[in-house]
Amino acid sequence: MDFLEIDSINLSFKGRQVLSDIYLRCQTGDIVGLLGRNGAGKTSLMKIIFGSLNAQNQSVRFNGKYTHQLFKTLGAINYLPQNGFAMGYFSFYDLIQAFGLENRVDEFREIEEIRKNLNQKMRDLSGGIKRLMEIVTILYTNNSFVILDEPFSHLSPLLVEKLIPHIKEQAKFKGIILSDHKYKTVMSVCNKYYLLSSGTLREIEGEKSLADYGYIASLT
Amino acid sequence: MEKLADKKMVFVRKWLIGMGYFFREYTMYNLIFTYFAIDIFLEGGTASYSYIFWLKIFGFITTATIYYWSRKKYFYFFHNFGLSIRELFISAFLIDACLTFLALILSNLIYQWIF
After folding, report:
1. Quick check: A141 and A99 in contact, CB under 8 A?
2. Which of A40, A170, B2, B105 would disulfide-bridge A196, Cβ 3.0–4.6 Å?
3. How far apart are alpha carbons A179 and A43 in whole angstroms?
4. Which residues in A81-94 are b (16+ Cβ under 10 Å) and which e?
5. What average pLDDT does the segment B63-80 reach?
């Protein structure tokens, strides 16, 4: 079982403290949900964990070993950024081939939207289908942890429903950290949820806590 | 031992694929400077080495700057292959330098053969 520990994360931008003394632990089997308002620092935190952003102070440990840029540790982590990462000239097949997943193509074909667009260039696809393909690629890549930044944005409810079993299936073999504004979906997928507000990370129990901390107006 | 060898193979595979895509993208921007380098070399011969050197440095910095600002989000693709921005540009620079050197030798041979 692999584990990832992040602590003492302090990040400030132009004098504003964005993240303050953050601690987070994730291990194989965990699906950790990060919630927070726009600008709360969710993306920054995920980038710090991944290693593409340096905080003023940070400690990221993979299986107990300190690492400065986690993405450089072989087999450790993959990251799905908010705005996508795949070049327009890639088809889904090219992408999974680059990530060494071509032997799983039959599994991916089970998703209708993928089967129909397997060899279409990303630049010719709708934003939702492109997003789905990127998520599936990152999710299935052979690494211990996956970070998904807003995986459900751009996806229709039907695609979100199709994606959730894949996230749960992959969580049997890896730890997943995801963030999204669709908090009900996040809460239905994850087994741990955290709310990032005023620079601090709080573990929350349920929707009531979200209302208590002002993330949602009231329970509906 | 076998596991370590497997890990090394995965590392090499990832590095080659990641660098391959980066260089393919980057070269498209950088080719024009290589073309001018060949032109200067054929005109001036070995006396033009210093011009070629500075032209390539200028070309590299220009294309690297354009690439960095225009295709910033795609760096995550390469990070997912374990490559940092610094590694990408340093490796691209070294590969480009070797290819330019080979291109100069080859174009000189072709030039001498034709004329």
Report:
1. yes
2. A40
3. 8
4. bbebbbbeebbbbb
5. 91
> Which run of H or of E encompasses A32?
strand A31-36
User: Which residue among A71, A73, A74 places its CB closest to the CB of B80?
Assistant: A71
pLDDT, residue B2, reads 59
Per DSSP, chain A holds a count of helices (H) and strands (E) of 8, 10
Nearest to A52 among B7, B13, B79 (CB): B79
**pLDDT below 70 — which residues of chain A?**
219-220
A138–B21 C-beta distance less than 8 A: no
Amino acid at position B52, single letter: I
Q: What is the pLDDT of residues A94-135, one digit of tens each?
A: 999 999 999 999 999 999 999 999 999 999 999 999 999 999
Residue from B90, B33, B38, B106 nearest B63 by CA: B33
SS3 A155: coil
Rounded mean pLDDT, B14-24 = 89
Rounded to the nearest 5°, which phi and psi values hold at A82? -55, -40
A79–B73 CB contact, under 8 Å: no
> 10 Å Cβ neighbour count for A125?
18
Task: Note the pLDDT of residue A214.
Answer: 83
Say whether pLDDT at B32 is over 80. Answer: yes
Q: Check residues B72 and B7 and name the one with the higher pLDDT.
A: B72
Res B101: pLDDT: 87
Quick check: ipTM above 0.95? Answer: no
Among B41, B46, B67, B59, smallest CA distance to B97 is for B59
Which of B11, B76, B84 is the closest to A85 by Cβ?
Answer: B76
CA atoms within 13 A on the CB side of A91: 11
Of A70, A8, A2, A45, nearest in space to A179 by CA: A45
What pLDDT was estimated at residue B81? 93
